[in-house]
Amino acid sequence: MKILIPVDGSELSLDAVRYALGLRRQGLNADFVLANVQEPASLYELLTMRDPQRVQGMTASAGDHLLEGARQLCDAAGVGYEFEIASGDPAHTLLDIAERYGCDAIVVGARGRGGLAGPMLGSVSQVLAHDSTIPVTVVKHARPEEVAPAEEASAETPKPADTAEDVVGLA
């Protein structure tokens, strides 16, 4: 299985990488395609730089920098990955990358904008979920106040061997 993970360098996109790594730890046999899509150069940038190769070099350099955190996570976990840095409309370019690499799924971080704000903002994750022909998992960023109660609850929950029923069953 091959999973496309869009990475923009944000903590939200790294949440998607962590989620996909968690799937691997649970037994999913998958390799990753890490992708960064840069917005096309503006007319001003093209006029002031006058060198298309220089613009491409800056795009590649920026994308490489933004992929660094995701690469480090994958390297630390010993997970194989390919990567691509592209330029264009983010959502549709990501769909093209997924097709080109033969991806079976997409795992993308969410900005957490729901309700009316999401559609008006043109969220990449929403376009991917709507237009993709392969499954898309949108990973919501956990806020610190959401994580603390969950950790407390898991710390208070007894392990199966610690329950009275298990102790009686062993006697």
Characterise this structure.
By secondary structure, this protein is an alpha/beta fold. It has a single domain, classed as HUPs (Rossmann fold), CATH 3.40.50. It has eight helices and five strands, in the order βαβααβαβααβαα. A five-stranded parallel β-sheet has the order 3-2-1-4-5, with helices on both faces. The longest helix has 26 residues, at 52-77. The protein is globular, with a radius of gyration of 20 Å. The chain starts with a strand and ends with a helix.
Offer a concise description of the structure.
The chain has 171 residues and is of the alpha/beta class. It has a single domain (2-170), classed as 3-Layer(aba) Sandwich (Rossmann fold).
Which helices and strands appear, and what pairs or packs with what?
Layout: E1 2-6, H1 11-25, E2 31-38, H2 43-49, H3 52-77, E3 81-87, H4 90-100, E4 105-109, H5 117-121, H6 124-131, E5 136-139, H7 144-156, H8 164-170
Helix pairs in contact: 1-3, 4-6
